[in-house]
Amino acid sequence: MKQDRQFRVAMLSVHSCPQGRPGTRDTGGMSIFVQNVARELGAQGIAVDIFTRSHQQASPPIMEIGHNVRLIHIPSGYNKEKLELFSYLPDFTKAIYAFKEYEAIEYNIIHSHYWLSGWVGAELAGQWRIPHVIMLHTSARAKNHHLGYSVEPEIRAETEEQVLGAANLVVAATQSEKQDLADFYGVDPLKIAVIPCGVDLDTFRPLLKPFARRALNLDGLPVVLYVGRLGREKGVEQLLEAVAIITREKPIQVMIVGGEDVDKGEMEHLQSLSRKLGIADMIRFHSSVEQDELPLYYSSADVLVLPSQYETFGLVAAEALACGLPVIASPVGAIPQLVQEGKTGFILNSSEPADLADILRRFIHDENLRKRLAASARSAVSGLSWAKVAERVVEEYGRLDGWLYKGGRP
């Protein structure tokens, strides 16, 4: 590409619209990554077009969502489940190709997110003869392995293997994910770049606890918080059973934030379990909330608990730490790097409720411990601004397209 032309990225997020509310169906940490990295790239002078399916019948075809950043809705696969979208991918690909021809623009790089987008990205990269960057965010074989049972279909695993093999660069959020991609898909480690997720340090910041608790109608009892989807692998049952153990000694409050219609069955199960355990009056279930409201929840709590069996990163933990909230979490994803044992929280190395109860008991009875860990929490994520994450992305783009390093960099 000529140096007087703008560097352009075609970013693909087929199944999940970056404008969706995190915590709702098909919208989570991946969408937060896509939107924030795209905006930071745009701020650096790189043009980014994000292609996603139309999630609402009235979705505008093109939205400006940041400087140099456009969100393009493709009318293909509306209201379909993720696996059903696979049969719509050829049409989705044709629509992107037609958009590029109509706009008479050239892209330097394709950056796809998740396996469905990866299939589209591989097709377009072959047609346009440009580099393809893929970030899976989660992978079928690693997920099935770490959970100990199969939840992802073989067609996904096979597609991921093909896409990873053909890609020019694979992005992993953690070293452990990099190892999984090498072990379960045979990806050359030299082709994998580790780029962590970021956190909005302006939005996620400590608020005064009395203010946050008043806003959420909480009293002075200790508050334990869980944020995320409600799924079998998230370990919320373990949290409820641990709470049942320690409430024999001292009453507490538990907020579980993130249940949506897609999790309705699991929420009903957890509500039933809380009644069976005799702690229903201590548990508050909330649907997902907007990103700018989450700091209220983090700042109102004494500790965040994430007993998940599988995470590729653990963005919720980073958000909590940025708000000055200590974290108790399983050693999955980036948790071993984010949570410093005894300094910003504790690593949960067991799925036994009694072990979680032992750690929670320390928080409840030791106010000095809570204050000391809270004071150190934010420093653990001070280097994870989205601007710094985008800088790493640009570095990797530059390795694939020398134009960025030959006077053409924005």
Q: How is the topology of this model organized?
A:
Elements: E1 8-12, H1 29-43, E2 47-53, E3 62-66, E4 69-74, H2 89-103, E5 109-113, H3 114-128, E6 132-135, H4 140-147, H5 154-166, E7 169-172, H6 175-185, E8 192-194, H7 209-215, E9 223-227, H8 236-246, E10 253-257, H9 264-276, E11 283-286, H10 294-300, E12 303-306, H11 315-322, E13 327-329, H12 335-338, E14 345-347, H13 353-365, H14 367-377, H15 386-400
Parallel strand pairs: 1-2, 1-5, 2-4, 5-6, 6-7, 7-8, 9-10, 9-12, 10-11, 12-13, 13-14
Antiparallel strand pairs: 3-4
Helix pairs in contact: 1-15, 2-3, 3-5, 7-10, 8-13
Contiguous runs where pLDDT drops below 50 for at least 5 residues: 405-410
CATH superfamily of the largest domain: Glycogen Phosphorylase B
Helical content, roughly? 40-55%
The CATH class label of the largest domain is Alpha Beta
Content of β-strand: 15-25%
Q: Ends: how far apart?
A: 13 Å
Shape: globular
Give a nutshell description of this structure.
With about 400 residues, the chain is α/β, with parallel strands linked by helices. The protein is built from 15 helices and 14 strands.
What does this structure look like?
The protein has 410 residues and is α/β, with parallel strands linked by helices. The chain folds into 2 domains: 8-198 and 385-405, Rossmann fold; 209-381, Rossmann fold. Helix content is 40%, strand content 15%. Strands 3-4-2-1-5-6-7-8 form an 8-stranded mixed beta sheet, with helices on both faces. It has a 6-stranded parallel beta sheet with strand order 11-10-9-12-13-14, sandwiched between helices. Helix 2 (89-103) crosses helix 3, helix 7 (209-215) packs across helix 10 (294-300) and helix 8 packs across helix 13. The longest helix has 15 residues, at 29-43. The radius of gyration is 22 Å and the shape is globular. It starts with 7 loop residues before the first strand and ends in a 10-residue tail after the last helix. Mean pLDDT is 91; it is low at 405-410.
